[in-house]
Amino acid sequence: MKKYISMMGLLASLTFANTSFAGPGESCHFHGSKPAAESVISKCADIRKQSLIKSGKLDKSWEPIKHSSIDLVDGKKGKEWKVVYKNSALQDKTKVNLYMFFTPPGNFIATNHTGQ
After folding, report:
1. What's the pTM value of the predicted model, to 2 decimals?
2. Residue-range domain boundaries for the chain
3. What is the 3-state secondary structure (H, E, C) of the chain?
4. CA-to-CA distance for 91 and 112, rounded, in angstroms?
């Protein structure tokens, strides 16, 4: 019986090993202070946007929208990435722009429609 349990534990650990070793680019969670590349920030912003759509916090019309700009700007606590999406098809003109903010290494800070 002990051999059976040990074999099942080994099999389970081998089966799920790849997901437990996902790299930082997969999870959009980073450590250190080295600024991320624009391409990494773009990917993380798209993942965050899809998550907001899936949770119902953003309208599905945002799905095909690509970012219009990505800039490293001066924020309240220092440098941060600012990603801007524009959805001109929306009726509510106060929500045409979607702003996402990330730390220089790429960790998500906030999203809003004001840019502040």
Report:
1. 0.74
2. 30-112
3. CHHHHHHHHHHHHHHCHHHHCCCHHHHCCCCCCCCCCHHHHHHHHHHHHHHHHHCCCCCHHHCCCCEEEEEEEEECCEEEEEEEEECCCCCCHHHCEEEEEECCCCCEEEEECCCC
4. 17
The residue among 22, 26, 29 whose CA lies nearest residue 103 is 29
Report yes or no: 94 and 113 within 8 Å, Cβ to Cβ. yes
Name 85's bridge partners. Answer: 67, 98
- Write down how long the chain is: 116
Local confidence pLDDT in tens for the 116 residues of the chain: 666 565 555 555 555 544 333 344 457 888 888 889 999 999 999 999 999 999 999 989 999 999 999 999 998 889 999 999 999 988 888 999 999 999 999 999 999 998 88
